[in-house]
Specification:
3-stranded antiparallel sheet, Outer Surface Protein A, domain 3, 34% helix, JmjC_dom, 13 helices, iron, Jelly Rolls, histone H3K36 demethylase activity, 403 residues, metal ion binding, 3 domains, JmjC domain-containing protein, single chain
Amino acid sequence: MLSRCIATDRHTFATEHWGRRPLLSRSGSLPRDFGDLLSAEMVDELIAERGVRAPFIRLARDGDLLARDCYVGPAGFGAEMPDQVDSGKVLGEFASGATIVLQGLHRLWPPLIDFVRQAVDDLGHPVQANAYITPPGNRGFDPHYDVHDVFVLQTTGHKRWVVHEPVHAHPLPSQPWTQHRAAIAERAAQDPVIDTVLEPGDALYLPRGWVHSAQAMDTTSIHLTLGVSAVTGIDVARAVVDQLEAVEEFRQSLPLGADPADRDEMIATVTKVMAEMIATMRDEATTLGGGAADRLTHRHAERTRPVAVRPLASLEASESADTAGVHWRPGLVATVEESGDRVVLRLPDRVISFPASCAAALQAIRLGGTAHAGSLPGLDRADATVLIRRLLREAVVVPAAHG
């Protein structure tokens, strides 16, 4: 995925651009287009035939979001949900200059489901995909910044992008651009860092915090935005501090009679507790570090999606588990732990226990590649068949043809 979005090598991008500064990648430097991900025909199909519902669609005009009633409604007999897109209403608003925003396409559009899954693997951070369809000469949003990194992929038409340096560097999700409206307006009046027109196949990487605005040129513009929710040092620190809940000393009440209005007293209290925290984290580094790592792994699992399973195909494969080829479900976060005479497969939402004899086989499947009942270490074919059947039914592995 990453190689399609940048016109430089991975090392240069990682050291010079990631989280630091924008990167404009022209299609001519690495011939490509993004039409396989989303084209005008695909947008029409999504709006007209795929039953898209709010909030997977929004409309915006001149910096403001339109009310939902402008573009959604009931879908008739057999689909009486009141928040489905009304394609006729969308046409009217689009013809009047509104930008169509298709959100969460990594959840409902097959080409982007696969592409975003690859992006998560490449980047190591949660990724989402939105599309912006803007009529000629119009813009959807005023100058602003995002609290996540973005890769802009121009698929159709031309769009002018104006990018300015941050007014608040590396913003967190709790620090939206609306907290800095005046500073952004002032920055937008200054000379930009980038003022360019993206053509089909062009890509633009913007770290979070960089102020930007975009306007379609003389034709309809379609671009994809891959939003990357970067894990930060603050996230790591919070995961570590959360582990202190297990330490009795930090669960105790502060002394009776403390005066929260006395700033000097509060500074002394904070300084004392911080020193105790630092000492505890130094003495219990291994335990606290392991717990924090587990929490970060769990958080990543909650914010990303493993490859969807195909229930009918998986059930069919389980019926022929003695010959079926399977592999680990891509994107599924899990650990294999030995515990006495059992081996435990710890998943984000549950724990599955197996006989200890399955340990080597589980590790082999977990490490990747296609597995068969006749090739799993430590098990004969009959036991391996039972293991594969159970893993298929538990949605831990998928048939090799569908992964």
